Amino acid sequence: MTDLYDTVAWGKSSKDSKFSQLKIQRNLPGADDVTFDLKYCGICHTDVHIANNDWGTTTFPVVPGHELAGVVSAIGTNVTKFKVGDQVGVGCIVDSCLKCRNCNDGVEHICSGKMTMTYDSKISHGHIKTNSGITYGGFSTSQTVNERFLIKIPAEYPLESAGPLFCSAITMYSPLCHWKAASGGLNVGVIGIGGLGQMGIMLAKAMGNKVTAISTSPAKQQDAMEIGADNFIVSTDEASMLSGADTLDLILNTVSANHQIEHYLPLLRRDGSIVQLGLVGKKHEIAQIPLMRKRIQISGSMIGGIPETQDCMDFCAKHKIFSKIKLVKASELDHVFSILEQKNDQVVRYVLDIEASK
Ligand SMILES: [Zn+2]
Ligand SMILES: [Zn+2]
Description:
By secondary structure, the protein is of the alpha/beta class. It is built from 11 helices and 17 strands. It has helices at 45-51, 101-104, 159-162, 168-178, 195-206, 221-226, 238-243, 288-294, 306-318, 333-342, 354-357; strands at residues 4-11, 20-27, 33-42, 68-75, 87-90, 93-95, 116-117, 142-146, 151-152, 187-191, 210-215, 231-234, 248-253, 268-276, 297-300, 325-328, 349-353. Strands 3, 4, 5, 8, 9, 16 and 17 form a 7-stranded mixed beta sheet that branches. The protein is globular, with a radius of gyration of 20 Å. Bound molecules: zinc ion (2 copies). One zinc ion (ZN) binds next to α2.
């Protein structure tokens, strides 16, 4: 493995500390690696959970950020897909075994040897290195990864808007493709109109599907219709739910608060599928008869592999799909994290402006 170099990062040294500037080390590019100067990094709700050690799994100091966007500064001798000056990005994964059936099939996030997440993950496959043996995320000035985990951002796509695609867009794009909505013609429902849900509406619509937005909040109707929803259902309103009964082929459920999946099953048509995408800890209780009666499937999905993430990037560039973003500096991180702690369904995605933070 190659030598290490110093880079500036912003992170938390303990659960209760504030964000501060930290010095970390990453590996210099080996033959298959690309180093890039980070320009922007999206701020995801998962960052808040990990920075606060909500799941009891965080190793401190932690440098969050898994929506990285930057410009290539150095490449290894074997690298063919990227050159210095290219716009590139990294999402939630920075390493996997690259040998198993799932890695060979381009679904590295399902690696049988376990993928290495972009931050707060133990380094175990040897394609990436830091001074601590724990990965550090994109709230930093530079990153090095094996070219296999890098996404090319088309030159015409605004770099500041690209990061969020590698988390929220791929989370929605992958199930839309897997459940055959990519060529259009389906009736697709999206539950929850936060960051994921909005992306789901825009993607499903651009693919040529009819889209129904489903929310507990009638106030979300205007937002949802503006970005392409054809219908709107208030999930807490019995009449509204009845109006959508037996209409949907596919439901993408982004709700991350505890809920019962059964509530939404009547919306599905024969052979319909509901896909769970939010991180819900509590178990669901399901009666079997409704599943049997209409051959309904309940499934789950999480982010996507690298080739599909590249497809998602290219699709968003082609169809001019952007997240609504707001640039912030590192000095504002504590404030932004406290806003995200209050509510998970921000219409705007906060993006750390790295140049402005130096
Ligand atoms: Zn995320
Ligand atoms: Zn693998």
